[in-house]
Amino acid sequence: MMSLQNDGVTVAAEDSTPIAGDPVALRRRLREDGMLLFRGLLPEARLAELRARFTEVLRRHDWLATGEDTDGDGGLRPAANRRDGSPRWWRMYEDLQRVELMHELAHAPRLVEAMRAVLGKPLLNHTRRQVSLVHPGFWIPPHQEHTYVQGTPDVLTAWVPFTAFPEDGGSLRVLRERSVPGVRPLTVLDTGGVEAVVEPGEGGWWRAPALGPGDVVVMHALATRALDENVSPYLRGAVEYRYQSAREPVCFASLRPHHYPRVPGWEELAAGWSERRWLRVPLRVRQVDFLLPDRQESWHELLPRPVSRLVEVEPGRT
């Protein structure tokens, strides 16, 4: 299992479902924890339907093993030697993005109500929606979403599993911080990936306990998050939706499909959908450029110091 390079204590995240209708309490908990956990926020039957649609795509692209494919908890048994970035992966991911239900669920009433309770009105629902496939042996190092999303720092990511995530299936973690240090420096790993630098003793971690379809974890873009290694033999999956105030700036890329232009634009992806309103955004949103450094290790120097109305940012740090 991956090391989180931090000697703080890990504790289970507190369920925020009882305060879902209390904007003041939700903002207070988000400010203190950097995350919110909601149990059963979305209809489990709709997530089961999404899993079935995605399973059809994965099977059509030979991404699943033949024969028995589940562990009883919704985990899928992947075919051998299937990894992100191959030409076959891009064709498969394009078809996942064509699934209308995935975009529809970003507008689920209870999820949107929770986002409005924290962010206020008018709400901007990012149309760049991500499908995360967590293969056996896969893990995600500590990182901040703001580095890769930009625009306003006050973007909330809703992490929505469509399979079960048991204890060994890749636990989602968020660093427990009373205040965030702005944009963290990045270091390049031997694998070619990058991780945010977290110093020893710099707080502990919130751990989302075993999750299932219908549960939702909401994280602030400046919070440092990670995913433990999936040590099970099954493929796990989640979709990621992002929301912000429509009064604050957004990068144009957040309104395009995830991985555009490697993935086609909306005219092609949404062909044949029953509705196109899942792609609507408020008029006159203020778009800003996405800043890309020459070296990933200098990203924190290129990005302006974040100013947030939702979380405290440490003074004097970038």
Q: Which series of helices and strands comes N to C? A: EHEHHHHEEEHEEEEEEEEEHEH
Whole-angstrom Rg:
19 Å
Structural class: alpha+beta
CATH domain topology: Jelly Rolls
List the helices and strands and how they pair.
Layout lengths: L9 E3 L10 H11 L1 E4 L5 H17 L26 H11 L2 H5 L4 H11 L3 E3 L4 E5 L5 E5 H5 L6 E6 L10 E4 L10 E3 L5 E3 L8 E3 L8 E5 L3 E4 L8 E10 L4 E2 L14 H4 L17 E2 L10 H4 L16
Question: What would the keywords be for this entry?
Answer:
6-stranded antiparallel β-sheet; 318 residues; globular; alpha+beta; disordered N terminus; Jelly Rolls; 5-stranded mixed β-sheet; 8 helices
Would you write up a description of this structure?
By secondary structure, the protein is an alpha+beta fold. The chain has one domain: Jelly Rolls (Sandwich), CATH 2.60.120.620. Helices cover 21% and strands 19% of the residues. It has eight helices and 15 strands. Strands 2, 3, 4, 6, 11 and 13 form a six-stranded antiparallel beta sheet that branches. Strands 1-10-7-12-5 form a five-stranded mixed beta sheet. It is globular and about 55 Å long. 41% of the residues are buried.
Produce a short descriptive summary.
With 318 residues, the chain is an alpha+beta fold.
